[in-house]
Design goal:
Elements lengths: L1 E4 L9 H7 L5 H9 L6 E7 L2 E15 L2 E13 L8 H15 L4 E4 L4 H4 L5 E11 L10 E5 L5 H11 L6 E3 L3 H12 L4 E7 L2 E10 L3 E8 L4 H9 L9 E4 L6 E12 L2 H7 L1 E2 L5 E8 L9 E6 L7 E4 L6 E3 H8 L5 H4 L9 H7 L2 E2 L4 E2 L5
Parallel strand pairs: 4-5, 8-20, 11-12, 15-18
Antiparallel strand pairs: 1-2, 2-3, 3-4, 3-8, 5-13, 6-12, 6-13, 7-9, 9-10, 10-11, 14-19, 15-16, 16-17
Length: 376
């Protein structure tokens, strides 16, 4: 077994394995992926018997955690040729890339699992549930003067500005929406027989959404100003050739939400970096310590002290020797991302929380509002 990171010019060698393991992906999508995403990503492979048998792709993103921006990676295309499965290749790849990311001070990595059970042994946990919904047929645009058109590549900067001005404060963790982000989104959606729609009232952008049509039309991540809800619904409904059918929405706004589905799992990579990016209640002093158990990124297995003085939000993180409790990294992920309260965490096997530690941990402002709708 030879595990290595491919050189950039070698990334195309993994396309055959992708086509074999993920036959549902179209030629158009793979053309886009290997021309756009694979020019900037990192691909790790296991070679055996003279060929690539297993792979893992790291697609780079800039993620915002509160007021701070950090490098992160979206783990995609984790795949092994069928005849070479059950040999530990995936585990070896995950261990390697997590160590690489730790060295780059990546606070966390994320992925969309084919099955939750595949990644829980490596301490990934769900952190983002996507709102799903529908636009019912018969929606009318009652906003006079609102137009809808496909975004062009050169309009990506306008989309980034619209997001920053109107939506950047809505979430605590999200992939930074830059000009490049929206250029890539436009190309990605076009590879799926879609694009990105812009709503305008005169020359003013009032909304946008991504769409695709691979058999059935779907809308992703609609963002619009409150008074343009009907205009969005009417524009989304035009995606449906048969106007008697609803259009599905992924990342649905509250007005159209019919449910939620867990879609994104994350794994803490550089714990110290993540903790230091969080904030605490500035009216209260924070002072606690706890041991972390991390069987994969063992550099996180330390006793950490968290401090902040009254009047400041910043959390100061350092190693210490005296511990008030023990928290395995998986349970810490669930707690810090706001998915599981301390009262539940302390019941888990391997967790030790004193009453004082529990009360201190509750002072941390957890980033519960997560927005990660990325596809690859």
């Amino acid at each position: 077994m030879n595990l290595r990171k491919l050189e950039q010019e070698e990334n195309g060698k993994t396309r055959r394995l992708w086509e074999t393991v993920f036959p549902e992906d179209t030629k158009e999508f793979l053309d886009y992926y290997y021309y756009v995403k694979a020019r900037e990503n990192q691909i790790y492979v296991v070679e055996e018997d003279g060929d690539i048998r297993s792979m893992l792709h790291l697609n780079p993103y800039r993620v915002r955690i509160g007021a701070n921006v950090f490098p992160s990676y979206y783990i995609v295309a984790v795949a092994t040729q069928e005849e070479y499965r059950s040999r530990g290749y995936m585990g070896a790849l995950l261990h390697r890339v997590m160590q690489e990311m730790y060295g780059k001070k990546v606070p966390f990595a994320f992925l969309m699992p084919a099955a939750e059970a595949i990644y829980t042994p490596y301490d990934f946990r769900f952190i983002y549930s996507q709102a799903t919904g529908i636009v019912e047929p018969g929606s009318e645009n009652k906003s006079a003067g609102v137009s809808c058109s496909d975004a062009m590549i050169w309009e990506a900067g306008q989309l980034a500005d619209f997001f920053e001005e109107n939506f950047s404060g809505r979430w605590q963790i999200y992939a930074e929406r830059s000009d490049e982000y929206y250029r890539t989104m436009i190309l990605e959606q076009q590879s799926e027989r879609g694009g990105v729609k812009i709503l305008r009232d005169g020359n003013k952008i009032t909304g946008m959404f991504a769409y695709a049509d691979e058999g059935e039309p779907e809308v992703r991540e609609p963002l619009y100003l409150p008074e343009y809800e009907e205009a969005f619904a009417a524009a989304a409904q035009t995606m449906q050739k048969d106007n008697s059918k609803p259009v599905r929405i992924y990342g649905a706004p509250p007005a159209f939400c019919t449910g939620h589905r867990p879609v994104i799992m994350a794994r803490l990579i550089r714990l110290e970096t993540f903790l230091a990016a969080l904030e605490t209640d500035e009216e209260k002093e924070l002072n606690c310590s706890f041991a972390v158990i991390d069987p994969v990124v063992t550099q996180n297995s330390r006793i950490w002290r968290l401090r902040s003085e009254p009047g400041e939000k910043k959390i100061h993180v350092r190693e210490t020797e005296d511990s008030e409790g023990v928290i395995p990294v998986a349970e810490l992920t669930e707690f810090l991302f706001g998915g599981t309260p301390a009262e539940e965490i302390k019941k888990r096997q391997g967790v030790i929380l004193t009453d004082h530690l529990e009360s201190e941990m509750k002072k941390i402002i957890k980033p519960e509002r997560v927005f990660l709708n990325e596809i690859v």
